[in-house]
TrEMBL record:
Family: Belongs to the cytochrome P450 family.
Annotated localization: Plastid, Chloroplast outer membrane
Record SUPFAM superfamilies: Cytochrome P450
Pfam families cross-referenced by the UniProt entry: p450 (PF00067)
GO function terms (MF aspect): ent-kaurene oxidase activity; heme binding; iron ion binding; oxidoreductase activity, acting on paired donors, with incorporation or reduction of molecular oxygen, NAD(P)H as one donor, and incorporation of one atom of oxygen
Gene3D superfamilies attached to this UniProt entry: Cytochrome P450
Source superkingdom: Eukaryota
Organism from which the protein derives: Liquidambar formosana
Metal-binding among keywords: yes
Official protein name in the record: ent-kaurene monooxygenase
Any one GO cellular component localisation term in the record: chloroplast outer membrane
Amino acid sequence: MIHMKQDFQGMPFATTVALGGLSLLVYFFIRGFISNRRGGLAKLPPPPVVPGLPLIGNLLQLKEKKPYKTFTKWAEIYGPIYSIRTGASTVIVLNSVDVAKEAMVTRFSSISTRKLPKALKILTFDKCMVATSDYNGFHKMVKQYILASVLGVNAQKRHRCHRDTMIENISNQLHAYVKSCPLQAINFRKLFDSEIFGLALKEALGKEVESIYVEELSTTLSKEEIFKVLVLEPMKGAIEVDWRDFFPYLRWIPNKTMDMKMQRMTFCRQAVMKALIKEQKKRIAMGEEINCHLDQLLSQAKTLTEEQIVMLLWEVIIETSDTTSITTEWAMYEIAKDPNRQDRLCREIQNVCGSDRIKEENLSKLPYLSAVFHETLRKHSPVPIIPLRYAHEDTQLGGYSIPTGSEIAINIYGCNMDKKQWERPEEWKPERFLEEKYDSMDLYKTMAFGGGKRVCAGSLQAMLISCTAIGRLVQEFEWKLKDGEEENVDCSGLTSHKLHPIQAILKPRD
Ligand code: HEM
C-alpha cells in the first residue's frame, strides 16, 4: 500500500492527468453501456401472460401432475415463450428449441441458479448433488468427480464389464421366462429395473447386494426393498406438492403431513445408504479396492462431509436407475407396436452383426438403432421439464425482458412436440433422424439431455445401455404387445414413467 502511494506521488503531472482522463472515459463508457443495456431491456416488452386468477394465478389450471402437457397446449395459443403465475412466483415457460438454447447457453450466466420446490430441497439435502446444485465451485468439483469415476469416457470404459453382465442377465432371464411360460405377457420393467439397479450399485459402491441389515431400521432389507427405499419412494416424493412453495409468505404455517412424510423418506434413505457404505468400508479396510465412486470419493475428496458423500453416491444410484429404464421401456413399447419398423431394425442388426450378439462396438454402424433411441427420447422425453432455474439478474429471452427473480421452466417435452420444428410430432417415426439435416452424433437435437454447461453428464452411459439393450432384445425376440396394451400410454412422475409397465409377448427368433 505504502509503495503504491509513493509510486503515485512520484508520477509526472502529465501522466497523472492522462490517467485521470482515461479513468473518466472508462467510467462514462461503462455507465453508458449499463444504462444502454438497462434502457435496451426496458424497451423490450414482457412475455405474453397466460391469464389466471388473483392470488393463486394459474395454479388451478396446473393441478394434475403433468404440467408439461398443459404448457405445450398453452404454447399453441401464447407462443413459444410466455409467463404464468404460480401463487407468488412468476414462471417464464420456454417451449421451443431456440428460446431453450438461448436460456441454456447465451443467457446462462444470468439464469444458472436452481430453484427447487420444498420436496426436492429436502430430498437433495439442499441441492447437495451435481444435478441440483447451483453453478458454483461445489458443482464444478463434484461434477469432475462423477465424470472421473463413473460417467466420463474413460470411466465408462472401465465399467464396460458391468454393462455386458447386465445385458447378458436380462437376455438369460427373458429366455428362461419364455421357455417356462410361452406366449404369456412379461413385465419387462421389473426385470430391467432390477438389473440396472444392480449396475448402479456396482458403479456407486463397488458391489451389488442381495440384502443388507440396516441398524437404524432394525431390519434386513432385500434388494427389491432397497430399490424401493432408494429409488421408487424418492421419485414419488420428488413430485409432492407443498402449497408453501407457492406462497412463501405463509411459510411459517406448518404442513405436518408433508414434513413428516419427507422426513421419514429421507431418514430411511440415509439409513440404507449408510448401511451400504459401512459394508463397503469393511471391504476397503481389508485392502480390497474397486474402481467405483465410493472408493474414488474416499481417497480424493477430503473436503467433503459424510452427508455430502452419501448424497453424491445416492445421485449415481437414482440417476442411473430411472431415466435409462424409462427410455428403454418406451422404445420397446413402440417397437412392439410397429412390426414393420421392428423388422427394419432387426434386418439392420443382422446385416452388421450377422449371427454374433450385438456389442457396444457395433453401435456406430447402426444408424436406425440410433434413430430409434433418439425418436424415443423425443416423443417420450424422460425429463419433460428441466428442474426450475432462476434469473438472478435482469435478462432477456426471445426478445422479451425477463426481470430478476423470475423462475425459468424449460419445457423439453414442449420443444420436442413443436410443430414448427417437427413434422407430425405426435408420431413415433425414427426415420426422421435419418434425414440429412440431423447429425447422428448430435445428442442435443431432441433437447432430451438439456444443453450448455448443465448438459446431462450421463448421456453416454444412457445411450450405451439403452441402445445395446434395445438391439439385443430385438435381435433375440419378436416383440408383440398384449391385447389392449396399445392404449396404455399414460405417464406418471417427475420423469415420464410409463404409468402401466409394458406387457409384451415375446417369441424367440430362430
Ligand atoms: C435417457 C437418459 C437421461 C436423460 C433423458 C437425462 C436428462 C437430463 C437432463 C434434462 C438434465 C438437466 C440438464 C440441465 O439442467 O440443463 C440432466 C442432468 C444430469 N444428468 Fe441426466 N439424463 C439421463 C441419464 C442420466 C444418467 C444415466 C446419469 C447417471 C448418473 C445422469 C446424470 C446426470 C447428471 C449428473 C446431471 C447434472 C449435470 C449438471 O448439472 O452439470 N443422467 N440429465
